[in-house]
Design brief:
By secondary structure, this protein is an alpha+beta fold. The strands form four sheets. A six-stranded antiparallel sheet has the order 9-10-1-13-21-20. Strands 14, 15, 16, 17, 18 and 19 form a six-stranded antiparallel sheet that branches. A hairpin with a 3-residue loop joins strand 9 and strand 10. The protein has two domains: 43-228, Bactericidal permeability-increasing protein, domain 1, CATH 3.15.10; 234-494, Super Roll (Bactericidal permeability-increasing protein, domain 2). The chain has nine helices and 21 strands. 30% of the residues lie in helices and 43% in strands. GO terms for molecular function: cholesterol binding; cholesterol transfer activity; phosphatidylcholine binding; phospholipid transporter activity; triglyceride binding. It catalyses: cholesteryl (9Z-octadecenoate)(in) = cholesteryl (9Z-octadecenoate)(out); cholesteryl (9Z,12Z)-octadecadienoate(in) = cholesteryl (9Z,12Z)-octadecadienoate(out); 1,2,3-tri-(9Z-octadecenoyl)-glycerol(in) = 1,2,3-tri-(9Z-octadecenoyl)-glycerol(out). InterPro entries: Bactericidal_perm-incr_a/b_dom, Cholesteryl_ester_transfer, Lipid-bd_serum_glycop_C, Lipid-bd_serum_glycop_N, Nase_comp1_CS.
Length: 505
């Protein structure tokens, strides 16, 4: 689910949503300062996102509501001259260059060079001298401008959530030329009104454009916060990503620390320690996520409490499990277990009897769980009959990867210890052929099938939350003792920016 989107989206879509906060927040006592999730975005990501500035700046200029400009001045021989500019609209706009810089005073500095813009509208003027009649005229005008724009976006925190303040905004005008009725040659009227209008026009443009940029920044921040909140919530399971401490801005990266507490109905878990250190993350990739073992373990507990750790297998899949080896001995064992019943009339249920225990180690994620397996046959018109029930403690080590918009879970190691075994074909439990077959089946086929189902379910969940909309490049998932690091590069999903501009403006 932590600069500029060709300015603003980059700042507020990814950077600001994941990196909430500044020293404006007051954090609670020590147990609540523990960090479960860390996000770091580096300078290369800022430079990439900054390439998307143009569309948002154009939206800010075009969406600005320029007021009518009026003024009056005494002119020798002409008396008082009153003027008004109305219906001011942006016509053409282009941006030459945009730079972004991370400031350690908790701000992001954006310098946009040579914004050339053309404004069109109507000029109305009138004058009344001592011997002139009172006259009013109306002509179309066009203003050519060249502007530098500087923004200092400050990250402030209110109630553990981000407020992006882009009000520190400056416009520097290098050119401001007035043309009347398409006449490009300077005349007395053009010279007169250029002198009158330029200063007032600069103030109006600065005020309205900067106000619109700040408004757009807040809209984007709120939009992204909503996206983030949705990404880390699925029905009753919520991950608290509010700030655990101040965000950190260095010349090479921006980093935020989040609580990472998992909330489920009346269940919540507070932890008081964190093994995070800034040295665990580098600056070679664009985006990093650090997740604590505690956060992942709490998610597994919430999934268990929400009864999600249940798998039902029937039909061809069940048949594939029990016919892993097409041998005469295996066929005899299966016939004993199912009592000659067709697989189409059978169903297997696998579920976790207790909260899984998760441990993060260099070799992978170690999951230890007490699992029950129940196989029933469902003869037509009759009640179901349980032919097999097992409880076993399973420990698996898996390594995770993400490729082609799918989560991939690779089984590294596994062990099985039977705790309970009941089989109608072997009520005494003395038939070694049945237990040996089931031991092999669970190890060789059953565990991979459960892992594949978890893999598919998690991929589906992440796609529903919109992860597949992002262009993720060469992601790496690295496990270490007590934590996991996800590091990746990305290309900018331009359609997300266009979608926001279409819906929000």
């Amino acid at each position: 689910m932590c600069w500029a989107g060709r300015m603003m989206l980059g700042i507020f879509r990814i950077l600001l949503v994941l990196v909430h906060g500044s020293a404006a927040c007051e954090f609670g006592p020590f147990p609540y300062r523990a960090t479960g999730i860390v996000c770091r975005m580096t300078k290369p990501a800022a430079l990439l996102l900054n390439q998307e500035t143009a569309q948002v700046i154009q939206a800010a200029f075009r969406n600005a509501k320029f007021p009518n400009i009026t003024g009056e001045r005494s002119v020798r021989l002409l008396g008082k001259v009153a003027y008004g500019l109305s219906n001011i609209q942006v016509n053409d706009l282009s941006i030459e260059k945009s730079d972004v810089e991370l400031k350690e005073e908790n701000a992001i500095h954006i310098a946009i060079k040579n914004v050339t813009a053309s404004f069109k509208g109507t000029l109305t003027y009138g004058y009344a001298g001592a011997w002139f009649l009172k006259l009013f005229h109306s002509v179309d005008f066009e203003i050519e401008s060249s502007i530098d724009l500087q923004l200092n976006v400050k990250l402030m925190c209110q109630e553990d959530q981000l407020v992006a303040d882009a009000s520190d905004c400056y416009l520097t005008f290098h050119k401001l030329t007035l043309h009347l009725q398409g006449d490009k040659e300077p005349g007395w009227l053009k010279q007169l009104f250029t002198d009158f209008i330029s200063f007032t026009l600069k103030l109006v443009l600065k005020g309205e454009v900067c106000k619109e940029i700040n408004s757009l920044a807040q809209m984007l921040a709120n939009y992204v916060l909503d996206l983030a909140a949705n990404f880390v919530r699925d029905n009753d399971i919520i991950v608290d990503i509010s700030l655990a401490s101040d965000s950190v801005i260095k010349a090479g990266y921006l980093e935020s620390h989040h609580k990472g507490l998992v909330l489920y109905k009346n269940y919540s878990n507070i932890f008081s320690d964190s093994v995070f250190s800034p040295s665990l993350l580098t600056e070679s990739r664009m985006l990093y996520f650090w997740l604590s073992e505690h956060t992942l373990s709490s998610l597994a507990s919430a999934a268990f409490l929400d009864e999600r750790l249940v798998l039902t297998i029937r039909g061809e899949k069940l048949q594939a499990l029990f016919e892993m080896e097409d041998t005469e001995e295996q066929q005899k064992v299966v016939q004993k277990i199912f009592q000659g019943t067709s697989y189409n009339d059978s169903v297997a249920k696998v579920w976790s009897l207790a909260c899984p225990q998760i441990s993060l180690q260099p070799e992978g994620t170690v999951v230890k769980s007490l699992v029950a397996v129940e196989v029933s046959i469902l003869p037509a018109g009759e009640e179901s009959l349980v032919v097999l029930y097992m409880e076993k403690e399973i420990t698996v080590t898996v390594q995770a990867a993400y490729a082609e918009k799918k989560l991939i879970l690779q089984l590294v190691d596994s062990s099985i210890e039977f705790k309970v075994f009941k089989c109608t074909a072997d009520p005494s439990g003395n038939d070694p052929s049945i237990q040996n077959f089931l031991q092999t089946m669970v190890s060789a086929v059953g565990i991979p099938e459960v892992i594949s189902s978890v893999e598919s379910a998690l991929t589906s969940l992440m796609n529903r939350k919109g992860l597949n909309l992002f262009d993720i490049i060469n992601p790496e998932i690295i496990t270490r003792k007590g934590y996991i690091i996800v590091q990746l590069d990305f290309s900018f999903p331009n359609h997300l920016l266009l979608n926001f501009l279409e819906k929000g403006l």
